[in-house]
TrEMBL record:
It is found in: Endomembrane system; Membrane. This is Methyltransferase. PANTHER family: METHYLTRANSFERASE, SAM-DEPENDENT METHYLTRANSFERASE. It comes from Datura stramonium (Jimsonweed). Residues 1-21 are annotated as: Disordered. It comes from the Eukaryota. It holds the Pfam family Methyltransf_29. Its main location: membrane. Residues 1-17 have a biased composition (Polar residues).
């Protein structure tokens, strides 16, 4: 159709030219005839296959359809009006999608899309911090015992919002890392409650148009750095043996934030509770965090995932309910891993008055915790001042012998210890893999960081991940090295320090995408979908990376505007006939920052459908050829979410 030169996808100019084609070695007499014949046959075959396999065709109303190539343009353009800026068929990628940020503040009115595309209106400003599966109103319908009402309780299909979550008025691009560790714009998280409630604990201060995070905490008012130094005097945090950590009841995640400079990657979690914005503050600071709680369900992580677990006055009743919560920490803790506890009841003889509890009460609480730890075969590693540390055994040989005398808690029967998506916590001890002697590490010894990233993970070398071998990992690593390099040629901002900080990989497999960004100042939350055929999250953790389980038929346990960049490899093929494409894309829009970027890999037919929806979301997008060339059916959609906020006429201050 005339009137528009919009192209739905393009090929960067870095593709090899005809002059470098291997057939150039033919005799000059046959060169031009051969090239002409080959070009004609390629175009004819590609065109026939394209028409045969395209379920929607390239002539769908409202979707542009010319296939761009830097070599031979086999088909004439078929264009319709589109809200995305137009472009030519052969160009530099940086001239097409603008991946840079522009907005420090302002109204940011959205572009009005074409009427032929289904549009998704802005939600009411009251939804600016909407977390569908941790909605405070919905949670009141559930049992308050053991904080079950704080767990995930997702809306029914009929309750799903079909609108775009607005950023609060005045939203600004976050400070760049590492400055973001200490500063967050007030407009982005307009909550002052913690500045009052935690004023004496040095958590957070309000300074004009921003918050400052001095690094303090309830049990470390002198700062997380000094507190971590104290821990480092008790266990070795410098030799690379501790790489992954979990912080339960994390507050604003200062512990995790200051571990990053020590090459320790912590997953911090806390419920959405009276400390309204604690996880949101953590994410604005550029620190890995999720909304979560230990209640009746397993934590969404595989067994033997973390080298270190931490609780600093996290208010979790570790000694209650037959030690259920400590049993769950044991499941996710690696053999030889450490559990660190500070705050009540540790050092109660000094603090009991300040904690406004009796000596007897605090002594009884610590006695219960010590008893549960012994029942798990943990040893008390050290207790000094306000810090106590326990260590999980390297294997269960001796522990199984002790079970003959005491079976509380009993060993769990044969089960999948890595299954953790909506799986009920059990009051039994998850058995470690068998070993031949007490000197062996159950499940296999991990390399120290950074060698751990490229070493063969024990789960693979032991053959416990179906269909995944050392050769599989090697090929996957090579594949993602090439893919990430290609991504950076299309999106030149991906290689620029500071443009992106919080990244999400929606279908991570072995963590290859994250592994190839390890030298950049970013972190990646690796998702292994609950519906994936192979559970590889344990492998990801054994590589020294982090992640969680998630079904993309539901909302993620995080706040709006969490991620700067979202990567989705074959997500829509995986969820075909499972849930609606538009609901997945609306969730992506919810958790993506204004001017955040998206990379989607999928079949060309699927991407055409995806692009139609992203046009309705006011994303600026282009479909790009596969890194192996235009004849591959798999394509890539690069997109940038537009900057827009709630209007200034509506007050978005929620505090």
């Amino acid at each position: 159709m005339a009137g528009s030169n919009q192209t739905p996808y393009y090929t960067p100019t870095s593709k090899p030219s005809a002059a470098t084609h291997p057939f150039s070695s033919w005799k000059r007499l046959n060169l031009y005839y051969s090239l002409a014949a080959i070009t004609f046959l390629c175009c004819a075959c590609y065109y026939a296959g394209y028409l045969q396999h395209s379920s929607v065709g390239l002539r769908v109303s409202g979707i542009t359809s010319n296939i761009a190539s830097s070599t031979t343009n086999c088909f004439p353009s078929q264009n319709t009006t589109s809200p995305v800026s137009s472009s030519s068929s052969s160009f530099s990628s940086s001239s097409q999608l603008d991946f840079t940020t522009h907005h420090a503040a302002g109204d940011g009115e959205a572009v009005v899309p074409d009427e032929t595309v289904k549009t998704y209106p802005p939600c009411d400003v009251k939804y600016s911090e909407y977390t569908p599966c941790e909605d405070p109103k919905r949670s009141l319908k559930f049992d308050r015992d053991r904080l079950i009402y704080r767990e995930r309780h997702c809306p029914e299909q009929s309750e799903l919002l079909k609108c775009r979550i607005p950023a609060p008025y005045g939203y600004k691009n976050p400070f760049k890392w590492p400055l973001s560790r200490d500063l967050v714009w007030y407009a982005n998280v307009p909550h002052k409650e913690l500045t009052v409630e935690k004023a004496v604990q040095n958590w957070i201060r309000f300074e004009g148009d921003r918050f400052r995070f001095p690094g303090g905490g309830t049990m470390f008012p002198n700062g997380a750095d000094a507190y971590i130094d104290d821990i480092g005097k008790l266990i070795n945090l410098k030799d690379g043996s501790i790489r992954t950590a979990i912080d339960t009841g994390c507050g604003v995640a200062s512990w995790g934030a200051y571990l990053l400079s020590r090459n320790i990657l912590a997953v911090s979690f806390a419920p959405r509770d009276t400390h309204e914005a604690q996880v949101q503050f953590a994410l604005e600071r550029g620190v890995p965090a999720l909304i979560g709680v230990i209640a009746s369900k397993r934590l969404p992580y595989p067994s033997r995932a973390f080298d270190m677990a931490h609780c600093s006055r996290c208010l979790i009743p570790w000694g209650e309910y037959d030690g259920t919560y400590l049993i769950e920490v044991d499941r996710v803790l690696r053999p030889g891993g450490f559990w660190i506890l500070s705050g009540p009841p540790i050092h109660w003889r000094k603090h009991w008055k300040g904690w406004e509890r009796s000596k007897e009460d605090l002594n009884a609480e610590q006695t219960k915790i010590e008893k549960v730890a012994r029942s798990l075969c943990w040893k008390k590693f050290v207790e000094k001042d306000d810090i106590a540390i326990w260590q999980k055994p390297y294997n269960h040989l001796r522990c199984k012998k002790l079970r003959k005398a005491s079976k509380n808690p009993p060993m769990c029967p044969a089960q999948d210890p890595d299954a953790a998506w909506y799986r009920k916590i059990e009051t039994c001890l998850t058995p470690l893999p068998d070993v031949s002697s007490e000197e062996k590490v159950a499940g296999g010894q991990l390399e120290k960081w950074p060698q751990r990233l490229h070493a063969i993970p024990p789960r693979i070398s032991r053959g416990t991940v179906n269909g995944v071998t050392a050769e599989t990992l090697k090929k996957d690593s090579q594949l993602w090295k090439r893919r990430v390099s290609y991504y950076k040629t299309v999106n030149n901002q991906l290689g620029q320090p500071g443009r992106y900080r919080n990244l999400l990989d929606m279908n991570a497999y072995l963590g290859g995408f994250a592994a190839n960004l390890i030298d950049d100042p970013v972190w990646v939350m690796n998702i292994v979908p609950a519906e994936a055929k192979i559970n590889t999250l344990g492998v990801i953790y054994e590589r020294g990376l982090i992640g969680t389980y998630q079904s993309w038929c539901e909302a993620m346990s995080t706040y709006p505007r969490t991620y700067d960049l979202i990567h989705a490899d074959s997500v829509f093929i995986l969820y075909k006939d499972r849930c609606e494409m538009e609901d997945i894309l609306l969730e992506m829009d919810r958790i993506l920052r204004p001017e955040g970027s998206v990379i989607i890999r999928d079949d060309v037919d699927t991407l055409i459908k995806v692009k139609r929806i992203t046009d309705g979301l006011n994303w600026d997008s282009q479909i790009v050829d596969h890194e192996d060339g235009p004849l591959e059916r798999e394509k890539l959609l690069f997109a940038v979410k537009s900057y827009w906020t709630a209007p200034s006429t509506q007050e978005s201050h929620i505090s």
